[in-house]
Task: structure prediction
Amino acid sequence: MISKETLQKEISICRKHHQKQGFCAWGKCENCGVPLLLQKLYKAEVIEEKEAVEKFKAAILK
Result:
């Protein structure tokens, strides 16, 4: 498990890269699984359904 602070810090890094260039060292944002992995480590929650994944990523990257 990771703390809420760690989750927020890592997500802010994702947002920063997304806003600057639309991708980071992991790859293009639309194909990235890092936010989903962070959510799994934070809440022990796996998001698998396509609509749920898209909604989650949209919320993270805005």
User: Anything to note?
Assistant: The CA atoms of residues 15 and 61 lie 5 Å apart. The mean pLDDT is 89.
